[in-house]
Automatic annotation (TrEMBL):
Its main location: membrane. It holds the Pfam family SNF. This is Sodium-dependent transporter. It comes from Gracilibacillus oryzae. Keywords: Membrane, Transmembrane, Transmembrane helix, Transport. CDD domains: SLC6sbd_u1. The lineage of its organism: Bacteria, Bacillati, Bacillota, Bacilli, Bacillales.
């Protein structure tokens, strides 16, 4: 039998896990979420969620992967035959995300290029909506060369290249370069942002605590939601990555490091984004709260406008959009690895064949979004994946293991045997009670909003 691939070093695994975790969620989701949910006061539910759900779940997924040394579906089937589908559900979600993630990375590549000479002109919003999206939406079979198609293909070539080279020479190697680079880029951006006029007003708005929000249930839901998404939990990623760990690995310690590293990137991004928003508010004589945005609007409409107004704008633009590309590709590699590993094991085929088959299918599916209608499709798919797919995956996972398989003690023994920090009752309560209740509540809340 072919020997299971392994990470070259402990730091290699950590960088890959951090590479998966650190993504668009840190850069464009966290800052606005924190701001809208109590500012400085948000850090209380956020830290609570990190310690009662994020890190406990990371430990659980790392332990599952390490103990069963398999992709997510096979790991679950080893826990109990009837649970294999939970792994496939997670893999399916990752597959779907990997079909539209490349589009956003492709936009970031285009905008890295546009940064030279700020090609978005005087009205970046109009440029993005009318010029950029309309030009790039000529469709797969459109008569104009669809400009986003080329960077999308480029992203896939990258992904195939690194995944094709395997765990150590591909995934580990890529993250060894990407993550330190990303950290340096983040630090340069933050320093630059902090020295802009108005930066302090921005930080003031970001950190000012609104303690009145702390009893608000929706704030707590937002904190847990941010933690789940941001740590790439319940996507089959962390199980797959941990299955490549050597036998002797301190699981618990690795989970704490991953969790805190991801949050540090989040905090850093929050500081950078709000310093820049403070600058924007000053330039346009508006309150900071008027210019706060998240997601696509923040990255492709607000940021270009701010970048244009800054000295050395091209340089700053390349750094910002380059950071999106690096963060995006390392996450993209991790989601794609889940189904390649799963397909390879299920059908006992080579890694190369699994990559051709799984990656090829995802590549073809991603072309569906590279046109006008595709944009609406992307929004809809993204909404359902984030609001139902992932929450359900997390819920299935903890309920199956904690309640049905009664498997927490087994996993705890496994983790404790190889880890310095021993898991106590805190860990079992977090997974057996707190996490399922919060996830169940989150689902109901989403259903309520959607049905009303
Ligand atoms: N954890 C990533 C972030 O915070 O941006 C998002 C993510 C990456 C989600 C990969 C899902 C995934 F498969
Ligand atoms: Na993250």
């Amino acid at each position: 039998m072919e020997q299971r691939s392994q990470w070259g070093t402990r730091i290699g695994f950590l960088l890959a896990a951090i590479g998966s975790a650190v993504g668009l969620g840190n850069i464009w989701r966290f800052p606005a979420t924190a701001f809208e949910n109590g500012g400085g006061a948000f850090f209380v539910p956020y830290l609570f969620a990190l310690l009662t759900a994020g890190i406990p779940l990371l430990i659980m997924e790392y332990t599952i992967g390490h103990k069963y040394r398999s992709s997510s579906p096979r790991s679950f089937s080893k826990i109990s035959k009837g649970m294999e589908w939970i792994g496939w559900w997670q893999v399916l979600i990752s597959f779907v995300i990997s079909t539209y993630y490349p589009i956003i990375i492709a936009w970031s590549i285009m905008y890295t290029y546009f940064s030279f000479g700020t090609k978005w002109g005087d009205d970046p919003t109009a440029f993005f909506v009318s010029d950029f999206l309309n030009k790039s939406d000529a469709g797969i079979f459109g008569s104009i060369v669809p400009s986003v198609l080329i960077p999308v293909i480029f992203v896939w070539i990258f992904v195939f290249f690194f995944l094709g080279r395997g765990v150590k020479k591909g995934i580990e190697f890529a993250n060894r370069i990407f993550i330190p680079t990303l950290l340096i880029v983040f630090i340069i951006i933050v320093i630059r942002a902090l020295t802009l006029p108005g930066a302090m007003e921005g930080l003031d708005a970001f950190f000012k605590p609104d303690w009145s929000r702390i009893m608000d249930g929706s704030v707590w839901i937002a904190a847990y939601g941010q933690i789940f998404f941001s740590l790439s939990i319940a996507f089959a990623i962390m199980i797959t990555y941990a299955s490549y760990l050597p036998k002797k690995s301190d699981i618990t310690n690795n989970a704490f490091i991953t969790g805190f590293a991801n949050s540090s990137f989040e905090l850093l991004a929050g500081i950078g984004v709000f310093a820049v928003l403070g600058f924007m508010a000053t330039q346009t004589s508006q309150p900071v709260s008027e210019v706060v945005q998240s997601g696509v609007g923040l990255a492709f409409m607000v940021f270009p406008e701010i970048i244009s107004q800054m000295p050395a704008s091209s340089f700053f633009g390349v750094l910002f959009f380059g950071a999106l590309v690096l963060a995006g590709i390392s996450s993209m590699i991790s989601i794609s690895e889940t189904y390649i590993a799963a397909v390879q094991e299920k059908f006992s085929i080579s890694r190369g064949k699994a990559l051709m088959f799984g990656g090829g299918l995802a590549f073809l599916a991603s072309l569906l979004y590279a046109n006008q209608g595709g944009l609406n499709l992307l929004d809809t798919v993204d909404y359902f994946i984030n609001n139902y797919g992932v929450a359900l995956a997390g819920l299935f996972e903890v309920v199956a293991i904690a309640w049905f398989a009664k498997g927490l003690r087994d996993l705890q023994t496994h983790a404790d045997n190889i880890s310095d920090i021993k898991l106590g009752i805190w860990w079992r309560i977090s997974l057996g009670a707190i996490t399922p209740v919060v996830l169940g509540f989150m689902m109901l809340q989403n259903l309520k909003t959607d049905l009303s």
